[in-house]
Amino acid sequence: xxxxxxxxNMDLVVDTxxxxxxxxxxxxxxxxxxxxxxxANQAVAAARLGADLHMVGAVGEDGFGQELTNNLKAEGIHxxxxxxxxxxxxxxxNILLYQNDNRIIVVxxxxxxxxxxxxxxxxxxxxxxxxxxxxxxxPAKTVQYxxxxxxxxxxxxxxxxxxSENFDASWxxxxxxxxxxxxxxADIFSGDLEKTLEKYPNKLIVTLGSNxxxxxxxxxxxxxxxxxxxxxDTTGAGDTFNGALAYAVxxxxxxxxxxxxxxxxxxxSVEKFGAQGGMxxxxxxxxxxxxxxx
Length: 294
Ligand code: RIB
Hints:
By secondary structure, this protein is of the alpha/beta class. Helices cover 34% and strands 24% of the residues. The radius of gyration is 18 Å and the shape is globular.
């Protein structure tokens, strides 16, 4: 069983071939609202692969909140620890898709009201979890509280430090895996990347987009190549990597196998529109592997 503590957003996606200059109005191609939020995305990624998944978070008492909770349920995710608040609207992400990449502004709304109360309410399932996944779209205080609780209960934590601005270096002691991309890694750890990786063997896994991911295994630097594919929408690729990594590690794969598995899942995820649209099932990952072992 895996528990995700994190954000739930409605993604408001605009696809455009013209990027407006300051003060300019342009005509875009397409607008869609699709489920997102780093927490919810990571939950859906792991659940689609077969994980027994509990989500802890908050939505507003509004149409988006209802739709997003129903979406999690439809993915087979347990939502009894997703609270509904009247004090804020459901979180949204304003996403601009431009030239095969994205720019995202998140307005946290209800995600900003996830507190120690929600974490305490879910203590029993956190205690039973083989892994807890966290990101940084909920208050840093709540992340700290969850990390302390997981430490006390002996539950391993995978922290995806995104967005990286609220990261606290003291958390490194409390987590089993941390998965920044290259930009987030440079924000969090100043200095030479190789030396930083060597400081955190088998713990710091840096994702490299379509080039895969790298980490240090205690003896050597390991590069796990990405799977090249035709990307339609890269939103949620990192979340797919994290959900799949947690699924693979808790299913008994070695770290190297798990990173390769997560790379394959992420490569499949970018082939469809929307953060969750292309997240694969286990069968889809296995068929991309084409009978090769991890
Ligand atoms: O990682 C992608 C996600 O970031 C989007 O779904 C958006 O909601 C933001 O949280």
